[in-house]
Records
---
Amino acid sequence: MKRVLSLMFLASTAMAQVTPADENTKSDIRYNLNESGSHYVKMTFTNQAWFRFNESNPGTTVLGDPKGTTFDIGLRRTRMQLFGQITDGLFFYTQFGMNNFNKLNAFPAYNTNGTLSNRKIGAFFHDALGEYEVYRKGTSFVRFGGGLTILNGLSRFSQPGIATIMTMDVPLFAQATVDQTDQFSRKLTAYSRGQIGPVNYRLGVSDPFPVETSGLVPPPIGLNSTFAQRKASKQFQALLIYNILDTEDNTTPGYMAGTYLGKKEIFNIEAGIISQKNATWRTEGSDTLYNNMTLWSVAAYLDIPLNNQKAFSAYLGYFSTDYGKGYLRYNGVMNPATATSRTIAGVSGNHGNAFPTFGTGSVIYAQAGYKLKEGLLGRKGTLMPYASLQYADYDRIQDGMDVYSAGINWLIKGHNGKFTLNWENRPLYKPGSVANELSKDGRRSSFTLQYQVSI
């Protein structure tokens, strides 16, 4: 009982103790289980509030009303983590929270009287796992674990540490099966992860969720590939990262930093893959055909300090995304709209701020940011402008797809307290000159102010 009361008191006052187990302890909510601090329990909290103006896709409606533009307020992410090193070998990690909470977050579920359903939804366990360390020598280690986890094989942005994102949001195409056969990118997985010299590895076998449990009615089988409702199989994944300079933090499974703001000197080369047999299906004539899903990427990541406490961060990656013939999925982050009067055959959800985010083909993604000197604004922190580009060559899109983003972070206290102002420009599409393909039909923009508080 005394230990429980002590934990509650220390958490409420955010008292910190510098320990060799964690570099960032001055503002931690942490309770040490031994005198050295190598055994501990830690809690974190992150909230990202969005204030957004969006130019709507053609035909967009909000609860039946046509809307050329929208302004909405929402919570992009609200998360709490509780994790700790219980003994030298035993580690646990949990994360609880919600995502994409705006006034339409319950849509499209309705009550029997035709009104929108209960808005008190969405909070759930994102992660719940345990792992055991079987080998440790210096910075090298090998761990085995299992449970509900975001750890996977495709890339660093497939398992992002959301509190440290440099751009306002992550490139969602890298979370390849999000809310289709996973739970907001998390899967039930048995895995091994470790650091062997300069090489960091993650290996996993996942048991994907049935697409029927995604919360939406799965699309009927047809000409284009969609996630299959039969012949479920396991998913295999691997990610290898070669650390040329400093070694990245390995405290939690998955979760890789967006930028260290010059606190580390990182240059990595990575390669990853996700593979699943019979992941999708489609029809060809009277036959039902199953497709293997094979997703792989190669990338380089640079995050280094510069003179006068400045820093530079950059990422360049190539992704090959084979979901099966004809696969194409629109997605709109925290979509401010509900429907459209201008549907496009062969796709769904093309309203609001959506664009073809996932598809069979390939993607090139790049981002870069420059942190200005510490104390640029005195006690109010500093600034970090950035830009990103996503270019997708999906099979069903003529002439490719490009999405631009540019913005600036006001780092009041690093990632713990920051404002981000972001502009995004995305393409629009209409039925193309070739059957089952889409061609460009103009562009739209959105402007978002994010306020992040994290501890």
---
Amino acid sequence: MREALFIKKNKDRWLNNQSAPPQSPDEMAKVFTQLVDDLAYAKTFYPTSKTVQYLNKQASDMYLSIYQNRKEESSRLVYYWKYELPLLIHKHRKSLLFSFVLFMTFFLLAFFVAVKDAELASNFFGNSYVEKTLENIKEGNPFGIYETGNPILSWLGIMINNIKVAFLSFTSGIFCGIPTMYLLAYNGAMLGIFDQLFVAHGFGVQFWLVVFVHGTLEITALIVAATAGFVLGKSFLFPGTKKRIDAFRDGAKDGVKIMIGILPAFVIAAFFEGLFTRLYNDIAWLTTFLTTASVLFVIWYFIIYPVQLVRKKKKGLEEGGALHA
């Protein structure tokens, strides 16, 4: 094939690749493959032609674009955890505070009701679970319930159940947030009753050191999941100056981002519960360390760090405004 005919046959496609580069990975791969084939053909039959130089540059530019996109995809996750999620948490801090207050209210309410009603624990957890726990307390191993079962199977079972509850809490936010409030209140009450069961037998401090090896991340994630549900419901009920559908779309987007952000917390919490909480007798320093580290992380990442980011952002904007002035 003559070079003029080769150029005429493919010129439109080459120009189109330049003016409107492919966006999807599949389309980009297809176009890049065709371009490499054209370059190989040109090198074979027109080795000294400017066509080879042109195709080589276009192929090089596309290769760099592909590489850059891959690099951006990996750095996108880092950006999400470092900036986007904390800023979302700060943006919806009032909903987060509401979730926390609601959870603690029912925790305290259930705790004090359980002091007066000894049957409340059995109603929540079942007679067999409570009887087994009381038996463990008498034997001097109050948290022996965490030593039962296969660690890996326990991890997977707990993780799946908690994620299911969290997504139910989020999606049910569309119903004015009422089911979300119920689930959050129920979990708060359950923790309060569970706590009182151990406090009544003199294991109040141990309860926090042992159960919160996994409980810190787990409960934090449940509260944040409820926050995502309230964000979803609030965006539909109170659209503000936006159209209701636009406000709901934005609320749903924020809620989904928050839910994706807390998934690792459920995975790690379940992993701790399945493999490390059971070690509270054998390696007490490890379980105490994990509880302390988890509490410090939650306080820093969900409270302190978002505020620092916002202040830093405001400071940057103010400095930028001063420079432009």
---
Amino acid sequence: MTTTENHSVATKSWPDAPTSPEGWIARAGEVAQLLAVDAVARDKGRDLPAAEVQLLKDAGLVTLLGPVEHGGGGQDWPTAYQVIRTVAAADGSIGQLLGYHLLWFWAARLVGTPEQIEAVEADATKNKWFFGGAVNPRDNDVAVTDEGDTIVFDGAKSFSTGSRVSDVTVLEGALQDGQHVFAIVPSNIEGLTFHDDWDNIGLRQTESGSVTIDKVRVDWSSAAGFVDKAFAPRVYNTLNVPTIQLVFINFYLGIARGALEEAAAYTKTKTRAWLHSTVDSAVDEPYIIDIYGDLTSKLWAVEALADAVALEGNKIHSNAWNVTAEERGDHEVRVAALKARATEVSLEITSTVFEALGARATASKYGFDRFWRNVRTHTLHDPVAYKRREVGRWVLTGELPEPTWYS
């Protein structure tokens, strides 16, 4: 095993790919152990996470959802969410990168034709593509122009997670009639310029900076789900939102678990009992015991709900061509409820652990603040109040959320 000098993750040779969900989750645990070694140091810098992405490739995690016949893991979303959670516990940035990658890997299934799905998944799995996504639907900032046999994407996106470490990028833009178009292009294609301007307080290694899309031309055949320039919508096309919200939820919970586990390890070895206490050790301090009991109970409860909702969603994924609007809506309500609780619990855990650590634990060398910064940065993605609203409307009126880019 070797380690690079710029705080990149260690490398490792891996045995044959696991064949069971338990095996893949264990593999993710091994990856997490390697990521944890230099996680604090990497968080302080802005190094390109190329070695970390290569680790995900070498371990087989980037092809976790890929077809077995092409060398993929052949796993389902419940396993993928557990893998994301496990990786994020060690490094929230890499957990997010993996989660977004898996969503965009799955994008062909969400909106593509059967022929596109087969072709994309074969190529992505065989070549171990790492996906980025220049998709920010809130702003109509990329125009798509029909030029006969080709379409042209032109504009810019404020965020493009994965950018410079990706092999391929999912582009999104709108035709003149308002119809959105998705296409997968090589990340080094002419006209695609990633800007090294991601400088936020958390998730520092996610490569989520802006991108300029300058007349990127692709064949109409690359437009996901389009046949003869026409898109035939189906309910499953709208599963991108609950699926990626579950990705968010699971790396939030992974970050929270990482904070709790690292804090507990510190408390066992470094935290001191209060001088006016009647105990000699921090592990016997009543208020510290209460903090860990309270936070762990809350985390376990939300993790259990997350696992249950993942299984519910998997039934929809396995019936992609026949899912009904009601099934989709019921699932989105459950995801919304879970998103609200996961946001609250992850913010609470990553902040409250300091009360059990003591003042010395605020030293930057320990990096305990990175857990809160990572969660706080991403939980602002969309207002959690609107998630609670979806649940409240369903409870009071039976109204199901209308599919949007955020619901």
